[in-house]
Amino acid sequence: MAMIEIVNIAKRYHAVDALKGISFSVQQGTVFGFLGPNGAGKTTLIRILANLIAPTFGTFRIHGVTRESTKKHVGYLAQQPGFYPWMTGRELLRFSGKLYGMGAGDIEQRIKELLSLCGIEQAADRRIGGYSGGMLQRLGIAQAIMHRPKVTLLDEPASALDPVGRKDVLTLISRLREETTVFMSSHILEDIQRVCDEVAIIADGSIVLHEDMDKLLKSHAKPLVRLEFEHSSSASKFQVHMEAISIRVSKESEVQMVIAETDFHSQYSQIMGILVDYNLLLKSINKENATLEDIFMHHIKERNHA
Amino acid sequence: MHSILLTLARKELTEGFRSYKFLIWAIICGFFGILSPLSAYYMPEVLAIIGASQNIMFTLAEVTYRDAVAQYVKNFTQIGSIIMIFLAMGSVAGEKSDGSLQFLLVRPVKLRAILLSKIFALVFMIILGLSIATILTGIYSLYLFSGFPLVPFIRANMLLMLYLLVLGVVTISLSAMVQKPIVAGLGSLGLWLVFSALGALGGIGSYSFTKLGSEMIHLIEGFSISWKPIVSSMIIMMGSVGCSLFVFKRWEPSN
Amino acid sequence: MNKEIVLLVAPLVVLELILKLICLRDWSQRERMNGLSRTAWLLIFLFVNLFGPIAYLVYGRKYHGND
């Protein structure tokens, strides 16, 4: 079942098209990654889905409803969230629950659950003004899912954090899939690759790619073999000999050469022969798959050339 | 809707206490409450000291509660008004710039409920402060002067409450229409000066809400009061809230 | 007569002291302040009566200023 349906949404700011007619849908239970460089329109789309701004054109449906009625099904965490610094974490969650019309007993029960899920029990009764960045972000996720929304929108949830904080928040996000559909944006490919099941890439206000994460990585995989040499002289000799038998080599560094896996297999004995005959000492030899970064770069470049 | 308004109002009250806003206002009102009768009472002595050093003789009529009331009205309608604007100017614009307004806007909360809850907290703050000021001025005046019309003074404070309420509501409304607190503050200050200038003129000026100050004195002296500034106060408040909702509805977070 | 003045003015002094104490307590727990430096704010609320503490409490002690 489609939890989020986006139909031809466009947003124009002072004659600049931030979004140029975007359509796609997100299935229930997915952790959906919305990837793109800064300024591509990620925040604009998320704010539209959160009902903070109105699209210039197009509509969207969340859990089958539109406009104001979507609010109760949506949880939202802004890129730079502002929570009342004079409240405690517990008070903020309680306040949020009341605004969604939850019952008092349910609110306390849910707060308990969320404090432990997000690992902020210790900070619960401290003023938010004194929270660290990582704590704020975890509280941010807690307030977003307080009312058990069908859809949770997270705008760059981990981007501003240090590596440890990022890992914690991403682990937390991947745990959310049991109770809500997650729609998260990021410009950090690694984060999306780590937690998302499905990904859409946005550039200049248009979707350039939308695919299942596994399929995407497989279909774009151009398996490569990386050879690392002990000495740079061996590496350059290797390059010369490979070109002599017309195998394309790309030089990654002074001591690292990369060739296509197909070439490696078809000319295996010849390559090995050269290595042995000329005494080219290898440090390591690895097979590698394409990363989301390669795919991202590929698509962005393609657009820029077009 | 009803319970959401209650939740928001409680949030505004807690915020008012924790951010020291209510405390500041209460202490200022306490100052005015004590200072008004005290400065009126000792004015002749102060003038006598100044006079002696300058070799001038001031001949003054005996000071009465009237001087205290005049001081009280002056304090609240001048410095008090500026402080009121200062305290109210960040109420919505401050939440816009620190991002906490978005917290409310993604939730099923009506804009008018947000504005109403802020006005509710404003009413609470004004009543709190004026009660303190009334009690202190009452005690000091009863002690210092022969005779003080306590009941008319309390009734006159209702007019002062309306005066401050208009100023606060206009400031909050402006605060919802602009992006920065300082803009709301300056705008409100400008409007206040315009109304004060209008009030100094005759004719249409008698409708200015700033006329409520002189109506206070009329009321204490037992004269009948004009309904013009009271009616116009209501219209100004409703008008500014209306404009504010109209503009606020179109607000979108930027950056 | 003089004693009377002192008694009548005392509450004003007490109010001012309460304000200054609140500022001092807040000031000692806060690292960053809005607009001016820490020392500047201390001098302002200690030596400018009434308006110094008000300015500090309303403007200077913002949690996350938009600076």
What does this structure look like?
The complex is a heterotrimer of chains A (306), B (255) and C (67). Chain A contains eleven helices and 13 strands. Chain A is α/β, with parallel strands linked by helices. Chain A starts with a strand and ends with a helix. Chain B has one domain. Chain B contains eleven helices and no strands. In chain B, helix 4 (79-88) crosses helix 8 and helix 8 (150-177) crosses helix 9 (181-200). Chain C has one domain. Chains in contact: A-B, A-C, B-C. The interface between A and B is medium-sized, with 26 and 24 residues.
**Span from first to last CA of chain A?**
36 Å
Number of strands of chain A: 13
Helix share bin of chain A: 25-40%
Strand content of chain A: 25-35%
Parts with pLDDT < 50 across at least 5 consecutive residues of chain B:
none
Mean of all residue-level pLDDT scores of chain A:
88
Order of helices and strands of chain B: HHHHHHHHHHH
| Category by helix and strand content of chain B | mainly alpha
Q: At the first level of CATH, what is the class of the largest domain in chain A? A: Alpha Beta
> What is the straight-line distance between the termini of chain B?
31 Å
How many structural units, i.e. domains of chain A?
2
Shape of chain A: elongated
Cα-atom Rg of chain B, whole angstroms? Answer: 20 Å
Poorly predicted runs of chain A:
none
How would you sum up the global shape of chain B? elongated
**Share of β-strand residues of chain B:** under 5%
In total, the number of domains of chain B comes to 1
Mean pLDDT of chain B equals 90
- Tally of individual helices of chain B: 11
Number of helices of chain A: 11
H-E string of chain A: EEEHEEHHHEHEHEEHEHEEHHEH
